[in-house]
Amino acid sequence: MNRNIQTRIVLALICWFSWMSVAKKCRADLYTAAAASLEWKVDSADEVYLAEIVEDADAKHGLRFQPLEALMSNRELNIFPHATVHQCRLGGCLDSRSQFAVAGSRWLIFVRGEGEQIRVSNAISLTHPTADWTYAAISGFGKGDERVLTKSEEIIDRVKQRIAVDRPLPMDCDPDLTDHLYGKRLSEIPLGAWMGGKLLHVDIMRWDDPNEFGFDHDTLVSPLLVPIDVPQGEASGQRSVADVHETELIFLNGSSSEFFRHGQPEQNKSSLIGTWQCELLDRVLTITFHHRLTCLYSMEIKDQADSDYLASNGGTVFGAGTWTVDGGFLNLRKNRRVEGRWHRGRSWMRHGEDDLPRGRIVSKSDTEFQLADGTKFVRHNEPVTAYGHPHEHPWYLISEGWGLHRVSPTVEITFTMAGQPEPKPLNDLVLMWRQRGSPPIQGPPRPERPRTVRTLLGDQGFEPRITVLRAGDTFEIEATGSRPIIDHNINLAWFNNSQRGFDPSLEPPLIYQETVARGEPGLMHIECNIHDDEHGYVAVTEHGNIAVTNNEGYARLTDWPIGRQRLVLTHPDYHFRDAEVWADGEKLEKKGAALFLEIRDANIELRITGVKRNE
Q1: Nearest by Cα to 446 from 560, 564, 581, 292
Q2: Maximum Cα–Cα distance for the chain, whole Å?
Q3: How distant, in Å, are the alpha carbons of 3, 19, 25, 352, 567 from that of 12?
Q4: How many CB atoms lie within 10 A of CB 465?
Q5: Higher pLDDT, 23 or 586
């Protein structure tokens, strides 16, 4: 090879790498977004309103949505669900005074559910329909950027036409899961596409250019969620996910699952359809199989079981996936479940199927079936639903009702006293929720699970120092250490429960046992009548919304109601009557030892200043 050829090759490689580098730089700030189509927004909504933002001094942000017309609804305009606007992204727009959410702007608002479960499911901006792809009217019909409607009259007419079609969602379709669980990649069939929708690969580039406010979103809309009747499109690359995966077929009773997923799931006559429950090593699994070959499941930790994963998620995890039976073999796959990651709240994560049992079905009846490994499923009455499990959703970001009615944030608490310049962790602090002064809890109640809680009494006193109980629990004290059991005499002065002391009929080393029937107003002091140095405390609530900080000052508020809640701070050694409390840098309203804290699906940093020691 002569020098000229070598030089040309080197130059060509340099040019090629340079071009690739420039191309990557030009494309580096682009990101792909998944959007819900106009047709999906209509079909998945129970109500559709035409509304306008108006000035209102009494409203939360000085602005509110005024309904002008009910395009699809059975309710009068004067009972429009205003609160739901502040439970989703629209409330965030008003809060941030977004440029396209101002007085005079007109919107289409899509609503789902009734009563306590009512919520805004989507919206379309009519005044600025192309300012942001989230609030755009993107139709499943058309090609490329032509799918984006730009004129408000055209958008309203198209919405009315779709309403007139009156096309219900497919059987077993859960729209709240479907419009969340569709993915951003076509490398696999996204779980949401199995739940009643279809994805189109559309490559809409409109938001790659600056919008009318001069913002360049650098957004490429690629997957578009549409109802299953929307055509796939004619342009190159605009195919449904199903077409990309024609080779991936899963069979149920000899029929392709694609058939059930795209048209007639009612023809799935499997006897497994319904809800089943089984006991695994450290958890109880409840799973609901739907016609559409999708399933929802919850895993709850067993009493006394040792499961770090389940305990870190509040004792329960919620998931979704697909199921099939092929040749008598039960398969659970495409599993996603909700869990907290990176301290950013509870969101959906993809997982393998190792947590879920699978295998050949060796026996089956109307009430139970068993796998080859001995796992037995028993038919259960209550179906698993998404409504009872908190998770992040693209629309219900600020929900104070449905969806996020209970969350499990971690609180980090530090405190300072006079003469103590640097804050330090505060352990043994009791945070107790008070129903009086807090908003009503929405959603299903927490299940009552009586437990047996045991405290150890040794040479160093009670361990733990503070025992937390819920009404119905059984409280036990076990003697340990070098002191004779007969020398212990427990004195626990209950306020609302019965009084009792040492019981000689108990089997050593158990020296105290009591089932508490009612909650107590505060910390109850435990002491030994014989040993003056043995002291401890018990806290009992009816609701179970109570937490105690550990040695590092952390406490987990497991399944607490969200919103602005009233809490009482209690500590064996300190009082907080004159203290000030700061949450993430903002001073909280406080009355004595009670304060008002905004509970959301995010961790909280509390700093308490002006703490004084009990006299």
Answers
A1: 560
A2: 103
A3: 14, 10, 20, 45, 69
A4: 16
A5: 586
Q: Where would I find the beta strands (DSSP E) of 205-258?
A: 219-227, 251-252, 255-256
pLDDT tens-digit readout, 275-288: 999 998 888 999 99
Number of Cβ atoms within 10 Å of the Cβ of 383: 13
Tell me the pLDDT tens digit for each residue of 223-280: 888 888 887 654 444 444 444 333 333 444 434 455 555 556 777 888 899 999 999 8
Q: Which of 319, 314, 309 is nearest to 281 (CA)?
A: 309
**Dihedral Cα 157, 160, 165, 166, nearest 10 deg:** 160
pLDDT at 117 over 50: yes
The whole-number average pLDDT for the span 292-313 is 77
Q: For residue 304, what are its two tokens?
A: 């006394």
Amino acid at 322: T
pLDDT, averaged across the chain: 79
User: Percent of the chain beyond pLDDT 70?
Assistant: 78
How crowded is residue 314: how many other Cβ atoms within 10 Å of its Cβ? 21
The contacts of residue 22 (CB under 8 Å, 6+ apart) are none
- Compute the distance between CA of residue 362 and CA of residue 376 in angstroms, rounded to an integer: 10
Structure tokens at 438: 């807090």
CA atoms within 13 A on the CB side of 19: 6
- From CA 560, how far away is CA 546, in angstroms rounded? 9
Write the DSSP string, 359-383.
EEEEEE-SSEEEETTS-EEEEESSP
Token reading at 448: 């009552």
